[in-house]
Amino acid sequence: MNAILEEVRAALWSVWNRRWLALAVAWGLCLLGWLAVAMVPNTYESRARIFVQLDDVLADQIGIGTGERKKDIDRVTQTLTSAVNLEKVIRSTRLGEKVTSDRAMESAVEKLAETISIKSTQANLFEISATSGRSDLSDGQNAQLAQDVVQKLIDIFREENLGGTRGEMRDTIDFLDQQLADRQKQLESAEQERLAFEAQHPDMIGGPTAIAQKLENTRDAMRSVDADLAAAQSALAAADGQLAGTPRTMMIPGQAGGAQGALMQAEANLSDMRARGLTDNHPDVIAAQKQIDNLRIQAAKQGNSGGMPNPAYSSLLSIRAERQANVQALQSRKAALASELMQVTASQTQEPGVAGEAQRIGRDYDVLRKQYDKLLQDREELRLRGQVENERNAIKFEIVDPPTSPRKPSAPNRPLLLFGVLVLGIGAGAGAGYGMSMLRSSYATASKLENTFELPVIGTISQVTTEASRLLKLKRLKLFAAGAGGLAGLFVVLLAVEFIQRGMVG
After folding, report:
1. Domain co-membership, 48 together with 70
2. Are residues 267 and 387 in the same domain?
3. 322 shares its domain with 462
4. Fewer Cβ in 10 A, N or C end of the chain?
5. Is 11 among the domain residues?
């Protein structure tokens, strides 16, 4: 700790011993630094805040959603600092006074873009700021220029969101009207071509889709007729079987005799066997069936003598005729469907180009029709949206804070720079004095002298000051104090001038 204190005492003595050098260096650096600070032009910043409300129930109902409006505002925010809009700002402010060529305009646009800031501070709240620090303008002119730039940016923002959107809406509707007129002409031409083709090829009416549907319907009808025909043929076969087992005549009771009477008795016996549950494979049933077959042959040879027509047989004949007529009708229907199916298939096979042409015409017409309907729907939606935006603007625009008129510069922080130069000058002066003492090899304390030469110091001799030397020393101290005070006083004066100039702005 004592060693540190010795070093500090030695350093302070070294600086004090070279105080005039330190004061001169401090004055020189401070004058140069303050002059450099004075040459830096003041930069003034103007700010404004605008509120943009995006919520509107009616706008949401017709498709102007909040997300879509936010995209529009983001787009406008990004394009607000585009070269075209910045050129508008330059031409409407004093920035364009000295712009006489395209190259000068490009340079002015680049410089202006560096001084503008647009950011969203909160939801629906935007802050626009601009700075101006031109050396050829006074502080008041720079402050006014920054305010004018921000005001012009607000005007452009309003135009882009309110007026620009409506202009774009009108242009879009006009474009859609033109496209609708073109599509209508193309649709009418396609309709005429389709009608002419169908008049020349009647079997192609409806186009490939209708023909394919017709083929499918015909095939479905064929499958249905086949099923009905199979059922009708099965019913006819059943009627034939019943008819074969039913006698044409029946014996009158009391008159039955011969083969007919025996046949009726044998059939009655067979029916009784089956009623008792005997199957066709039973020996008695087989024997009875053979007997019936033989008797039928004999009865057929004898004719109808001794009997009357069997009503059951006549009824079965009527049923069989009805079922046979149904089968013939279904067969005719099947033949007609097969002929129709063959005709359509043959026409497509023989003239494949006609089918391809019909498909092309139908496809072109359908595409044009869909395009026309889509354009018509889009136009009506845009027209409704435009009416809503005109009556109830989906964007509520409000200036929360108008562009400020800056009273003090935003940069540089001149008081801080002046103080920094003063501290730097004093530090440089102290460093110069300390460095000079190191070069001259002077020793501030006896211990430092002893440590340097590694020899014991017997003692020290105090300086004897006479009255004349004391007065001279006092005079020099006053001069030094005046020099140091003058440096501090100049610093205070510069600060006062800075604040006075700030008060004069506006």
Report:
1. yes
2. no
3. no
4. N
5. yes
In this structure, are 457 and 497 located in the same domain?
yes
In this structure, are 8 and 68 located in the same domain? no
What the block records as the tokens of 244 is 């074969």
Q: Which residue has the higher pLDDT, 141 or 439?
A: 141
Six token digits for residue 390: 């005109």
Q: How many domains does the chain have?
A: 3
The length of the chain in residues reads 506
Domain-located, residue 428: yes
| Nearest in space to 93 (alpha carbons), one of 137, 61, 41, 62 | 137
Looking at residue 269, what is its pLDDT? 78
What was the pLDDT predicted at 236? 82
The model carries a pTM of: 0.46
Residues 244 and 310 in one domain: yes
- Residue 297 to residues 1, 35, 246, 311, 358, Cα–Cα distance (Å): 155, 151, 14, 21, 69
Q: What angle (nearest 5°) sits at the alpha carbon of residue 164, between those of residues 162 and 165?
A: 70
> For residue 227, with 0-12 CB atoms within 10 Å meaning exposed, 13-18 middle and 19 or more buried, which class applies?
exposed
- Residue 162: band (very low, low, confident or very high) from pLDDT cuts 50, 70, 90: low
In a domain? residue 59: yes
* pLDDT reported for residue 148: 92
Q: What is the 3-state secondary structure (H, E, C) of 158-222?
A: HHHHHHHHHHHHHHHHHHHHHHHHHHHHHHHHHHHHHHHHHHHCHHHCCHHHHHHHHHHHHHHHH
Summarize pLDDT for 406-430 with one digit per residue, the tens.
888 887 888 899 999 999 999 999 8
pLDDT at residue 174 greater than cutoff 50: yes
Distance between CA atoms of 95 and 116, rounded to whole angstroms? 14
Residue recorded with tokens 């060529």: 101
- Report yes or no on 190 lying in a domain: no
Query: pLDDT tens-digit profile of 320-360?
Result: 888 888 888 888 888 888 887 787 676 665 555 666 677 77
Please give the helix or strand (H or E) that residue 132 lies within, else none. strand 125-132
Query: Where in the sequence is the domain holding 139, given as residue range(s)?
Result: 44-178+380-401
The whole-angstrom separation of Cα 120 and Cα 126 is 4
Q: Is the domain of 124 the same as that of 168?
A: yes
> Residue 161 contacts by C-beta under 8 Å, 6 or more apart in sequence?
52, 72, 73, 76, 395, 397
* Mean pLDDT computed over every residue of the chain: 77
**316, 235 Cβ separation under 8 angstroms:** no
- Please check whether residues 170 and 307 belong to one and the same domain: no
